[in-house]
């Protein structure tokens, strides 16, 4: 998903989209020249963006498999992005046939592609909604019909919260989404951090994202990302670099010297 707040839901090929930029990082073809130009600006400043965005897809597969192994059979992926390999429904339904998956996005191209992909999958659907309006997600008729909040849910917020500025109170947004989750639910989050880059590099990256509908990308440190996990108990290694997260890994402290994504999974208690 992109973090863009575009209530008209219109495709805008003149403005870079964070969802389409992410697709470009992953080697996809569902992007426009304007997206590639902005993404190339990020890659030029921060070459390892390709490494950690691709590691984010591996994290998705590992986290969803872990949730399925723990008995979770319903998943809500907010910020799903353009369909690629190893989507949530593919991982979940392979690990636990019969699992229900709802994708949430506000990018019209994401919605078009996802609906085409899911046309023959009655257990999976996609809805239009914006992360900044969590009640609109929870009150959506499809969500109410398909998700039983009296049973555990796998909630995924992968590479999306760093598009929510502090003034929009991202921790409160996460808390409102977490509030109805039954004990045993899991919350998976990945979030960008700046590493020890120069001010010039950060300005170049944020300048590229500043041209998107999202408006900016806000890197956050360990303590800030940890606030999103209030009300949960971190499982596996805790909060680590995205490539290092494994359900059976020992707790460790992430190396924060290079820019990347922090990753964690919290169990709702």
Overall geometry comes to globular
Average pLDDT metric: 92
- Class from secondary-structure proportions: alpha/beta
- Give the C-alpha Rg: 17 Å
First and last CA, distance: 28 Å
Q: Ranges with pLDDT <50 over ≥5 residues?
A: 1-8
Largest sheet: 8 strands, mixed
Strand residue content: 15-25%
Helical stretch tally: 10
Layout of SSEs?
Blueprint lengths: L17 H8 L7 H13 L3 H21 L4 E5 L9 H8 L4 E6 L2 H10 L6 E5 L5 H5 L2 H6 L7 E5 L11 H9 L7 E8 L5 H12 L11 H5 L5 E3 L5 E2 L18 E9 L1
Parallel strand pairs: 1-2, 1-4, 2-3, 4-5
Antiparallel strand pairs: 5-8, 6-8, 7-8
Give a quick summary of the entry:
By secondary structure, the chain is of the alpha/beta class.
Description of the structure:
With 269 residues, the protein is an alpha/beta fold. The chain is 36% helix and 16% strand. Strands 1, 2, 3, 4, 5, 6, 7 and 8 form an eight-stranded mixed sheet that branches. Helix 1 (18-25) crosses helix 2 and helix 3 runs parallel beside helix 4 (88-95). The longest helix is centred in the N-terminal third of the chain and has 21 residues, at 49-69. The radius of gyration is 17 Å and the shape is globular. 47% of the residues are buried. Residues 1-8 have low confidence and may be disordered.
């Amino acid at each position: 998903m992109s973090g863009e707040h575009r209530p008209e839901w219109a495709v805008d090929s003149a403005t870079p989209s964070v969802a389409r930029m992410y697709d470009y990082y992953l080697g996809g073809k569902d992007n426009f020249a304007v997206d590639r130009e902005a993404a190339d600006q990020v890659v030029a400043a921060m070459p390892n963006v390709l490494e950690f965005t691709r590691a984010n897809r591996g994290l998705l597969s590992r986290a969803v498999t872990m949730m399925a192994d723990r008995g979770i059979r319903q998943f809500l992926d907010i910020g799903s992005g353009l369909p690629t390999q190893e989507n949530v429904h593919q991982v979940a339904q392979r690990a636990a046939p019969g699992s229900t998956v709802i994708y949430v996005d506000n990018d019209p191209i994401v919605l078009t592609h996802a609906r085409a992909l899911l046309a023959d999958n009655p257990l999976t659907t996609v809805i239009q909604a914006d992360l900044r309006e969590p009640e609109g997600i929870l009150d959506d008729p499809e969500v109410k019909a398909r998700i039983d909040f009296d049973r555990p849910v796998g909630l995924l917020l992968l590479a999306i919260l760093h598009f929510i500025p502090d003034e929009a109170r991202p921790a409160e947004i996460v808390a409102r989404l977490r509030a109805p989750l039954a004990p045993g639910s899991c919350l998976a989050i990945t979030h960008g951090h700046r590493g020890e880059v120069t001010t010039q590099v950060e300005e170049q990256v944020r300048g590229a994202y500043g041209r998107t509908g999202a408006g900016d990308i806000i890197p956050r440190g360990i303590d800030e990302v940890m606030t999103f996990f209030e009300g949960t108990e971190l499982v596996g290694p805790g909060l680590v670099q995205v490539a290092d997260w494994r359900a059976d890994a020992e707790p460790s402290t992430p190396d924060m010297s290079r820019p990347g994504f922090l990753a964690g999974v919290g169990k709702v208690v």
